[in-house]
Amino acid sequence: MIRTEYTVNTGDTAEFNNHVDDCVGTGRMGLALQKEYHDQLKIVQDEIGFGHIRGHGLFSDDMAIYQAYADENGEEKVEYNFTYLDRVMDDYISLGLRPFLELGFMPEKLASGTQTIFYWKGNTTPPKSDEGWTSLVIATLAHLIERYGAEEVTDWPIEVWNEPNLAGFWKDADMPAYFHLFEITFRAIKAFEPRFKVGGPAVCGGTDEKWIRAFLEFCREKKLQPDFITRHHYTINTPENIGHYRYNRLVEPKSGIAQLHTTRVIIDSFPEFAGKKIMITEFNTSYTPQSPLHDTNMNAAHIAAQLSMLGNDNASYSYWTFGDVFEESGVPFTPFYGGFGLVTNGLVKKPTFYTFKFFKRLKGQCVHRSDESVICKKQGGYNGVIWNLQMEDERERAEISFKLPADKQDYCLAVWTVDEVSGNPLKTWHDIGEPSSPSAEQLQLMRESAVPAVSTIRLSAKEYKVTFSLELAPNAVAYFELLPAEIRSDRGYDYERAVNKNG
Amino acid sequence: MIRTEYTVNTGDTAEFNNHVDDCVGTGRMGLALQKEYHDQLKIVQDEIGFGHIRGHGLFSDDMAIYQAYADENGEEKVEYNFTYLDRVMDDYISLGLRPFLELGFMPEKLASGTQTIFYWKGNTTPPKSDEGWTSLVIATLAHLIERYGAEEVTDWPIEVWNEPNLAGFWKDADMPAYFHLFEITFRAIKAFEPRFKVGGPAVCGGTDEKWIRAFLEFCREKKLQPDFITRHHYTINTPENIGHYRYNRLVEPKSGIAQLHTTRVIIDSFPEFAGKKIMITEFNTSYTPQSPLHDTNMNAAHIAAQLSMLGNDNASYSYWTFGDVFEESGVPFTPFYGGFGLVTNGLVKKPTFYTFKFFKRLKGQCVHRSDESVICKKQGGYNGVIWNLQMEDERERAEISFKLPADKQDYCLAVWTVDEVSGNPLKTWHDIGEPSSPSAEQLQLMRESAVPAVSTIRLSAKEYKVTFSLELAPNAVAYFELLPAEIRSDRGYDYERAVNKNG
Amino acid sequence: MIRTEYTVNTGDTAEFNNHVDDCVGTGRMGLALQKEYHDQLKIVQDEIGFGHIRGHGLFSDDMAIYQAYADENGEEKVEYNFTYLDRVMDDYISLGLRPFLELGFMPEKLASGTQTIFYWKGNTTPPKSDEGWTSLVIATLAHLIERYGAEEVTDWPIEVWNEPNLAGFWKDADMPAYFHLFEITFRAIKAFEPRFKVGGPAVCGGTDEKWIRAFLEFCREKKLQPDFITRHHYTINTPENIGHYRYNRLVEPKSGIAQLHTTRVIIDSFPEFAGKKIMITEFNTSYTPQSPLHDTNMNAAHIAAQLSMLGNDNASYSYWTFGDVFEESGVPFTPFYGGFGLVTNGLVKKPTFYTFKFFKRLKGQCVHRSDESVICKKQGGYNGVIWNLQMEDERERAEISFKLPADKQDYCLAVWTVDEVSGNPLKTWHDIGEPSSPSAEQLQLMRESAVPAVSTIRLSAKEYKVTFSLELAPNAVAYFELLPAEIRSDRGYDYERAVNKNG
Amino acid sequence: MIRTEYTVNTGDTAEFNNHVDDCVGTGRMGLALQKEYHDQLKIVQDEIGFGHIRGHGLFSDDMAIYQAYADENGEEKVEYNFTYLDRVMDDYISLGLRPFLELGFMPEKLASGTQTIFYWKGNTTPPKSDEGWTSLVIATLAHLIERYGAEEVTDWPIEVWNEPNLAGFWKDADMPAYFHLFEITFRAIKAFEPRFKVGGPAVCGGTDEKWIRAFLEFCREKKLQPDFITRHHYTINTPENIGHYRYNRLVEPKSGIAQLHTTRVIIDSFPEFAGKKIMITEFNTSYTPQSPLHDTNMNAAHIAAQLSMLGNDNASYSYWTFGDVFEESGVPFTPFYGGFGLVTNGLVKKPTFYTFKFFKRLKGQCVHRSDESVICKKQGGYNGVIWNLQMEDERERAEISFKLPADKQDYCLAVWTVDEVSGNPLKTWHDIGEPSSPSAEQLQLMRESAVPAVSTIRLSAKEYKVTFSLELAPNAVAYFELLPAEIRSDRGYDYERAVNKNG
What is the architecture, at CATH level 2, of domain A23-361? Predict the structure, then answer.
């Protein structure tokens, strides 16, 4: 058992920037037409509530926006079809979300090549015509403005392409070609409507020196002022593939956070760009789908540690992804296939769902932050998140004790805990035989087992301090509220007698 | 710790008649117009699902059926208003319920006296005119048949009055007056439509020799053949009143069941009536509302014991009542006021809710019944309910072990447990200060704490037997399913590695 | 046929104050616990959307707030029960409504006498103790503030009693007693929380000179500054009673409006009170329930005329009542019983429902108002309400023509019409035999017949004017929108060919 | 005006087989994952309620069932993924539907060639391996049985492939190759589970002599006894293409019905197959999507004529398709794009929706059928559908009069009419400018204009006959109910006074 004690004194504060709900990731936009996708997203929005949503495939052919045809003279003409785009955007808006628009991938008929990525075959080659590309971008934005109003739409962030530093995502990882794409896109959008916010370069992690610095130099040279800088962030070593699955090794949360700080330092080294907002447009533990890790308590605890620190340098960090409707590596065979999502196919909440829910519930001024806890002051009391990340094979329980300033006498401490016993439907699914097609009864059982344990306890302050300990199993994550709770019994009501006496 | 072990052998069966869902009780019919009433009943029906519903007040003035007025010549005329009756019946039917019609109490303008009962003032005097009463009864039944069809309506059981053996419910507890009422009502209904089933005498417990026997003698003499015999059943000693509340002492479940058996014996002693169906039209632990006992785990465990035995002699036993919208002693001041209901005002499920849900889930042939358990065989496996009733001040935990016949190798045991820690919102409400007007957040917390703990474990059969132990806290009630569960892992999926290894 | 033509010129404006949605009336507060009440109110709020709701019975005994009991020494003590109040307020707030609090009637145990009003027996006598009364008022307001916050609750208008100038509503219509009640209540509330807005005297119409003037003189003398003045407004002559029903004769809308203006004049004649807000806390055509008039098209047209003028002098006018759950004259026998409501029991919308819906939809600056029409400019087009009130036995159709300024070429005129043929479920109910207990199929038919006829037509502007005529059956009410509508056909689409040619 | 009169005498009956709700068509199965698809289907099921649903693409790659991969030795292995299949089937079942399984098209990795059909690229070549194909079929059926039970699943009809007589749907329209596919599939299914019902040859119309006869000869020779014979049925001449759209010329309904009768005659000429069930697994007016005709009143009237006759020879006729989520010719650009559906994208009901709803409502014994009407006797009254099909440029109104036997005195005739004025949202959409991306307000207006006009009238019988006339605009379709409706007014209620008098 690891034992830790913390004392918070009156007036203490701690730094903690909570942007947990700014943005969330999604499988390709064409999947947003699906009912299961909507149902998963609705659960996420009802209980967590993100502000923006970002994913690939806005211009991929299943969205059917770019339509080329031969006119009566055999000449190629282009028209745009916004039927599916409207449907997706309407749905997002009805769920309280705004899109974070990632411009990509390439419609087949506008592409310069045939290279594709993923099971769903997103074309990752530059446009065959710059003008065709910018026309497509502007026509799309113009349509969105006509439908939703400029006030609203210019508030949707725009990012140019995805991970161009990887040859899979952008032919040959051709940096000049990407910078050119960024430039023409950026200039076209700003010329059309300067209120739009446009950023890049959307690179994956580990390429700060090479890509981020080069991008900023390019912008400086071309006198482009991007509205924000984007990159991604994952925290595993190279995975091992077995059958449909990938097994990853997690690194320490802090090492990832340190790596992110490099980006901040590089940006701030440019006087033109110092202080510019960084938006992590993707993050998670593993970057591979079909990674069983995603469904575990360890994932939940690791993300808790990350969420306590990601706001240090970044204005946004978008968990990749909200749900398990996802096809990059093909269609999943089972409900617990190690997808990125917070919710499985079949609408079962994973442990990491609650990590987000807990951080979203945090309100008030931070008074304490440590490696395994964050506490904020609110409404005459406190709320906090604690976790016990255990990555090694030998795993220990933890007991964390707090002594907090109190100006009332009587308190109730309510604790919501997700650990290997409670809120862990992966175990339930395993125990019932790992069914690929669970029955309605099995799904119901999994959903019932996917809720945190809730407990309450009464506490009394002593000398203006209230003290309590919380015990966490390995990789548990818990949320607590400590609120004043004077007992005001109704006339004649005697709880102790009711509960402990027969008569 | 109390330790018990049971072995079931192949081919074993046990007697157990499960009529848990035949009927449930309700506050007076006028309350069925309320939205909170509907919302509570909907929860009960969605998760438990009773077949019938029975309560007082069909003819009380808030149902507005009986309307007397003076015509142009000043003569009293009567007309019937079925607006509210239709509304209530439509709602019951939409919730999958059929009424168990209790004929009573007396409309003020048809009453022979002014005696009333309850905060809501039900008139408990005989009719001033026999003909006025039977006309009212027949007009009501005729209206129901016109609206819902004779096939349907004649299937609704009918009971004449409520607890006429108590002076509060029937002026002077006048036995001949009641028998007369029964006779005229019975004859009028059967003359109108012989398919109706009519029963009585709806007495409270403890009066078998006096009232049940006399009633049967009266029926024999008058050549009346009632379709079933009704009585009530409560299991407490005299309560102590303090402020708004009453504190009761529970008696052993078995002593109550023994007392019920007397009724069976008396009926069977009449050759004309031997074997006639007994319907317990009310039962609970305490017969008083505002009885804090009702909200406790002890209540849940006591009712579990009762539900395992009530089918011994009785075809129906109607828990008094499904919900906490109830006004007999006035309007409750708090959500946990010790009401009879399975659900509180504010839609929080009490422990006893789950006792009913658990027994309702029991399917298949009983293979074992003991003082603290019932097990049935189904779908190649088993399901059961177990409980640990502890009524004394010193309370013990129990460990119950079962060895059951098995024809498969791999099983999953799933257990749903309600005890002082899980599924016990009364404690939560107390811990937050016993608020009379809980906020939305407080209600949410109470609802979250009102769910059973769910756990699963994998088991392997040995020599065609599967063995397991369940530990129960004092007054815990649990439901389990033991079902075959061979593991069929997807290609490459390794649960142990995913959960226990980093990478 | 009555023919009328109007021309509106560029820049024309007309006076029209649209407070249609400020407030609506309701049957007594205890009825707000009912499901049917909630369902009717939900329809009204979903489609019309009022801001406040006002009705009687806050302190009547079915709300159970005032509870007196004898303590151990036999002394009368008082406690308050807010269970039902919370339930009602929560429901109002969930439907987007704020209460307009009418303080009354008297709890039986606080009353000085036994006089009651209505089938539901509201006690209409002064308090037996001034202090008991003000304590009740302040305890209630304090509770509301604790539950909903002072910011919110002090925004709820408060009115002292109802129609004290009628002996039925206030014992002996005792003016000094009412003024005393007003004074102690007003002073107590302001002392407790000065932000509350308190008004009176809530008199019925026709008593301006006597009561309004006296009330203002009293306030001047006592140096009370009420926040607003309240009165009621109905527009019929004395009804004739037959069986359960009352038949009324409507007066001209303008004569009613003229009468209301008197109140304005009297108030403005007091320098201390000049310009003070007038709130009509009840209005309708007939003041009697069971008045078949309420369900008719004539009622809808009359209310349309009123709604076009009621804002002339008044800041609020609360239609009495939103729905037909109402018991002042007893429980209705049929769904179309002439209740005050916009929606019947059984959730069928009456013609007057649409009068409100149409006025609520009116947006923009008024450019034209006449005896049978109001037109406002919005979004490059117009919207308007027109009606054809015909009160005499001989009834005529009307054709109303408009010529409006246009800055576009192509328009679409959409018209929603409620008349004797469309949106008139009373006729449907009559045609199917006036059933008191309609079946589900009959209700469905009634609901399907309770929708306006919708039509569209394309119009072209000529010389910057667009011209059109609308024909109205007697007592029809219609809403129209005239909006720019250029045709942008998809490539190859030919509507005329599709519709008018075979192939 | 065309005037027609019909007299029905007591005891008259007419032949009319109403299988309107047996089955409906759908776009490819992969689209069934979409939310808009579900929402459209839910409307159709809620208001019409079909029994089965049939469409293409069960085995197409977007359903992801057939998965080939290389094992560690580089050998191709096959596994099946039922994730999407389960999702679609669960949704159908939740909507009260059973699938009519069409086996096709070919998974790319199982295909012998690369020929595809449609925008969505269904592979239409034979399997590269017979065994691979039958294994896929049997694995799919076995999975469905495991999930839904053999009792249920063997009740789902199975059809082998689609329109193999067209070279687009089946490479080279190779008849021997299809017959071979049919034989191996049929034999494999029957060997697996003989209770399955399997049919073919699923040909389009106009090929009875060639394909139906050859198919039956083949079956006779091979001693195959198919459970039913399937074909398709459309009623237009060759369309003209303009831009995205096709314009078709409708033929007379009767000529189509006559052509269908040929199939019956051919089948019955084989003694082995005489009387065998014919299932029309697709029918509509035009066989092309993007056919504006589908959205018109003429389509609705033509389908009405068809529905009155299709039961003459056929046990099932499946309208192609229930909704407008459909991609065979690409993604639609506008909501009224001439799709096959009964409901548009955006959930607006087309006129033909009501043709189906009206025929579905028809209950009882047919007493009259003519070229423009069907009448059935029910519940002491009648219900009927009438239409006025007008295909030429000059179109006439029709007045149809009926004299029907009556055993009551008073009746109410209720009529629901869809014509160019009511229930015609295509006109509304045109009038507002044919928007491709309608706003929420525009959609609301379209939906409000997509309801039938409802009217009621009271009728009195004379000499045991009730007589009435209905007037229909060109291409109107109407449903009526004529039911007994004695007036039972409440005490004092006078409808005429309420409606026609002021006071």
Answer: Alpha-Beta Barrel (3.20)
Ordered per-residue pLDDT tens for chain C, 503 residues: 999 999 999 999 999 999 999 999 999 999 999 999 999 999 999 999 999 999 999 999 999 999 999 998 999 999 999 999 999 999 999 999 999 999 999 999 999 999 999 999 999 999 999 999 999 999 999 999 999 999 999 999 999 999 999 999 999 999 999 999 999 999 999 999 999 999 999 999 888 889 999 999 999 999 999 999 999 999 998 889 999 999 999 999 999 999 999 999 999 999 999 999 999 999 999 999 999 999 999 999 999 999 999 999 999 999 999 999 999 999 999 999 999 999 999 999 999 999 999 999 999 999 999 999 999 999 889 999 999 999 999 999 999 999 999 999 999 999 999 999 999 999 999 999 999 999 999 999 999 999 999 999 999 999 999 999 999 999 999 999 999 999 999 999 999 999 999 98
Query: Do D503 and C412 make contact, defined as CB atoms within 8 angstroms?
Result: no
Tell me which residues of chain A, numbers 375 to 434, contact chain B at a CB-CB cutoff of 8 Å. Answer: 391-393, 410, 412, 414, 416, 421-422, 426-428, 430-434
Could you say which residues from 46 to 105 on chain B have a Cβ atom under 8 Å away from some Cβ of chain A?
none
Tokens 């027109």: give the residue: C386
Q: Do residues D418 and D331 make contact, with C-beta atoms less than 8 angstroms apart? A: no
Determine the Cα–Cα distance for residues D231 and D208; give it in Å rounded to an integer: 9
Strands C373-378 and C365-370: antiparallel
- Spatial CA neighbour of B89 closest among B24, B163, B145: B145
Active-site hit among D159, D163, D328, D372: D163
Cβ atoms of residues A420 and A390 within 8 Å:
no
SS (H, E, C) C244-269: CEEECCECCHHHHHHHHHHHHHHHHC
- pTM for the model stands at 0.97
Asked if C64's CB is within 8 angstroms of B36's CB, the reply is: no
Out of B15, B108, B152, B163, the active site residue is: B163
Q: Tens digit of pLDDT for each residue in D419-429?
A: 999 999 999 99
> A148: burial class by Cβ within 10 Å (0-12, 13-18, 19+)?
middle
Q: Where in chain B is the domain with CATH 3.20.20.80?
A: 23-361
Q: Cα C81 to the chain's mean position, in Å?
A: 30
Residue B463 makes CB contacts below 8 A (sequence gap 6+) with none
- Gap between the Cα atoms of C167 and A102, Å rounded: 73
- Say how far apart CA D206 and CA C232 lie, in whole Å: 76
* C-beta separation of A55 from A101 below 8 A: no
CA nearest B34: which of D486, C318, C84, A431? C84
Sign of the alpha-carbon dihedral angle for A424, A428, A431, A434: negative
D463 φψ region: left (φ > 0), alpha (ψ -120 to 50), beta (else):
left
- Measure the CA–CA gap between D499 and C4, rounded to whole angstroms: 26
Long-range contacts of B264-269 (CB under 8 A, 24+ apart): B264/B313, B266/B208, B266/B209, B266/B212, B266/B213, B266/B216, B267/B212, B267/B216, B267/B229
Report phi then psi at D128, rounded to 5.
Answer: -75, -15
- For A2-12+363-487, CATH number? 2.60.40.1500
Cis upstream peptide for B425 (omega within 30°): no
Catalytic residue among A102, A163, A328, A372: A163
- Cα D43 from Cα D133, distance rounded (Å): 36
Q: What's the CA dihedral at D28, D34, D38, D41 to 10 degrees?
A: -30
Select from D383, D495, D496 the residue whose CB has the most chain C CBs within 10 Å, as the one to mutate to test that interface. Answer: D495
ipTM over 0.85: yes
C250 HSE (CA, 13 A, CB side): 29
